[in-house]
Amino acid sequence: MLGARIIAEREIGNKSIRILTDSKSALLALDSYMVRSGLVWECRQTLRYVTQRNSVELCWLKGHSGNEGNERTEEMAKRVARMRF
């Protein structure tokens, strides 16, 4: 959600964007026909907005796998979580 929100707020356009997550449940919830969560609904709406101007791919990455990309993603997520918007 945070990644999509930042992209939307910065009005980024004409980009190919890949959002990585280690949460299979989040991806499954976003792909579900029935949405029961306000957060999932908000995320879907934000992603819908972002995909009007960009090509967006949501990707699952195995968590805590020692994968260098995952380690960087974890560190970036921690930094973003500390930021004030």
Quickly describe the structure.
InterPro entries: RNaseH-like_sf, RNaseH_domain, RNaseH_sf. The protein is an alpha+beta fold and 85 residues long. 53% of the residues lie in helices and 14% in strands.
Sheet with the most strands: spatial strand order: 1-2
Structural class by secondary-structure content: alpha+beta
Radius of gyration: 13 Å
Q: Can you give the helix content as a percent range?
A: 40-55%
Features:
single chain; 85 residues; alpha+beta
Description:
- Residues 1-82 form the RNase H type-1 domain.
- It comes from Zophobas morio.
- GO terms for molecular function: nucleic acid binding; RNA-DNA hybrid ribonuclease activity.
- Pfam families: RNase_H.
- This is RNase H type-1 domain-containing protein.
- There is one protein chain.
- This protein has 85 residues and is α+β, with helices and mostly antiparallel strands.
- Helix content is 53%, strand content 14%.
- It has a two-stranded parallel sheet with strand order 1-2.
- The longest helix has 15 residues, at 68-82.
- It contains 4 helices and 2 strands; from the N terminus they run αβααβα.
- The radius of gyration is 13 Å and the shape is globular.
Topology diagram in text:
Elements: H1 2-9, E1 16-21, H2 24-31, H3 38-51, E2 55-60, H4 68-82
Helix pairs in contact: 1-3
